Every structure is written in C-alpha cells, then in structure tokens.
Amino acid sequence: MELISSQRQRTDIPEKDWLDWKWQIQNRIKDEHELSDYIEISSDEREAISSCSQVFSFSATPYYLRLADKKDPNCPIRLQVLPRKEELSVRAWDREDPLAEESYMPVKGVTHRYPDRALWYLSHVCAVYCRFCTRKRKVSQSSGTPGLEDWQKALQYFREHPEIKEVILSGGDPLNLSDHKLDFLLGELKSIPHINQVRIHTRYPVTLPMRITSELCSVLKKHFPIYLVTHFNHPKELTPLVKERIGMLVKEGAVTVLNQSVLLKGVNNSVETLKDLFYGLTKIGIKPYYLHQCDEIFGSSHFRVPIEEGVELMKQIRGSVSGLSVPLYVVDLTGGGGKVPLPANYLEETKDSSYVFRNYKGDLYEIGF
Ligand code: SF4
C-alpha cells in the first residue's frame, strides 16, 4: 500500500478520493490550466491543446497524468494523451472510420462483420482520450450514447442470430457503466444459449485501475467465464496499483486477462521497450495477445511505424523473449477486411529434400522433410 500511496504524490488529495474511480472520472484534467498542476507544458503542447481539442477532446485522469514525466514532452505517457499539432495533418490514406464499423451496423451500437462475432459499442466515455484512438469519430462526444432502448434492440439482434458465438463489449469504455448495468448486460448475454463467450475490451486497468473493485470482481465472477482484453502500451503503465488490481481480477473475478498494444512511434517502437512491456505483463498475470499496427485513423500518421520496422522488431522479440510473452503482430485492414498477421519470414530456401531457415541472429539452419 505504501508504493500505491506514493503514486498519489499530491498530499492535498486524500487517499480515499485518489483510489475512488468516480472521483478520478469527475476530476479528469481537461484544459491547460489544470494540466499545469501535473506537468510543465511545452509551448507546442499548449498550442495543440486548444487547436486539436476541437477535433478530438483532451481528457486524462489525475492517476494517468501522474505517470507522465513532468519536463519531457516526449515522455511516452504524454505522447499518448496530450494533443500534438501533427493531429491536424490528414494524409491521403487517413479515414474517419478505418475499420468500416459503421457500414456493418445492423442495429445502433452493434458491428457485425465476422459471422460468429459481434462488437457491442456501449459508451462514448473513456477515462483518457488516447490520441491514436480508432473511434475518435464518436468517442468523447456527449450526445448519442446508446441507451436502454438501443440495448434491448441489440440483445434482440443477438437472440435472433444464432451464428453469433461471441459478443465483445467495447466503446468508449464499457467499464464506465455501473456494476449494476454490467451485471444486467452480462446476465442477458449469458442467457442466450448460442453465445459461447463474452469479451470485455477496456483500457481502464491502464488509465483507471481503481475501477477494478471487489464489487466489480463479484459481478464478473458471477458470469464466469469472462475474457477481458486491456490495452497497455508502455512499461511505465505497469504500476504497483495495476499489479494489485489485475491480481484481484484474476483471483477474485476469475477473469482471463489479455492485452493488445498498438505499435506507436516514439512510445514503444524499440526492442527494449516492447520486451519490458511483454515480460512485465506476463509477470502480473496478463497474456500479451496482439500488437496492432496503428490504424489509418485521421490525424495519427505521426504515430505510424513502417510495417517492415514492426516485423523486424517482432523478429528480435521472438528471438529473445519467452513465447508465452510474445503477442501476434497484426494489421486490421482498412475498409473492414479484418486482421492479417504480419509474421517475419524465416524460410530462406526450399530444396528437393530440405528447407533452409535463417534465425533471428541471421544464422542459417537446414532441416529435412
Ligand atoms: S481507451 Fe480505447 S476507446 Fe477510449 S480513447 Fe483510448 S483507444 Fe479510444
């Protein structure tokens, strides 16, 4: 508890408030005046906060901002959360809805693209608005949040489509809903005989770990099994509080926790950073699942890493990190084409009765049929 308290740093905030997720949400930092309590804002950041916030809101929990370096504008936490003027430059390939989610929406909030899976968009709200968000076309907007009537229509759709085996609760952040509402939604989903599994996609374990409470764990355990996919991008995000709350999810909530990261220039595009992240995740009970190529969302080109670089990074990772800690590097195809794995090519040559491989060190090995 000592370490967790020390993250609080500001002595004027009682620990009881700091560890209350609703207090963190109510006290999110939304402008440069509040921000200056946490970091020394650079002139570029100051300018970008006012110009870019018109396009995509700026907001961050006090908890998440406490992880940022006070002085360094290139700190990986700051890069993820603070607007940059580059966000205003839109490239030819940038899209409003790169994954074409709105085109595969039979009822409000439900994207049904793959036959056996449906994504259920439940909330516009997140604790932190990530500058590379794929859904910035609607996340953070105050109007149009799906309500009870939309939920009933979505549930009816799931009931009428026996080919749907999996529902993914997403958003915005679905853990922004109260425990009571989550209990209701999970109960309804689990009562549909053909639904095999339910996944929750949430960044709250990263940006608001205090959202994971014993009460939430009881709800999740009641609807066992639940798969929770979270979104850590940098080892700085793996704090003692995160470790404590992930432990609760796994032990009290009986939840299987996985992680998907996005490969982001300046944030995590180095072997050392990714290695620390992936090992750090498995150490606290989270399986690295996907490493995503950054989607072609408008205003995010400054984050994009060339795919060749990503493949090379993953080749180095695979050579030096336990397979348990290695995620699959994928690109989600613009236009709704689905995920495609981006494996390194190790097969150098095919001979009459053997294959020649080059390993991650560049050494050649030949094996027979
Ligand atoms: S938490 Fe997820 S949905 Fe919310 S802004 Fe970040 S990436 Fe987008």
UniProtKB/TrEMBL annotation:
InterPro entries given in the database record: Aldolase_TIM, LAM_C_dom, Lys_aminomutase/Glu_NH3_mut, rSAM, rSAM_sf
Q: Name one Pfam family in it.
A: LAM_C
Q: Where is the Radical SAM core domain?
A: 112-324
In alphabetical order, the GO MF annotations are:
4 iron, 4 sulfur cluster binding; isomerase activity; metal ion binding
The UniProt family comment states: Belongs to the radical SAM superfamily. KamA family.
Task: Give the matching CDD domains.
Answer: Radical_SAM
- The keyword Nucleus belongs to this UniProt entry's keyword annotation: no
Keywords on record: 4Fe-4S, Iron, Iron-sulfur, Isomerase, Metal-binding, Pyridoxal phosphate, S-adenosyl-L-methionine
Q: Where does [4Fe-4S] cluster bind?
A: 126, 130, 133
Report whether DNA-binding shows up as a keyword of the record.
no
- The protein, known as: KamA family radical SAM protein
Residue positions, PTM N6-(pyridoxal phosphate)lysine: 339
Organism superkingdom: Bacteria
Cofactor names: [4Fe-4S] cluster; pyridoxal 5'-phosphate
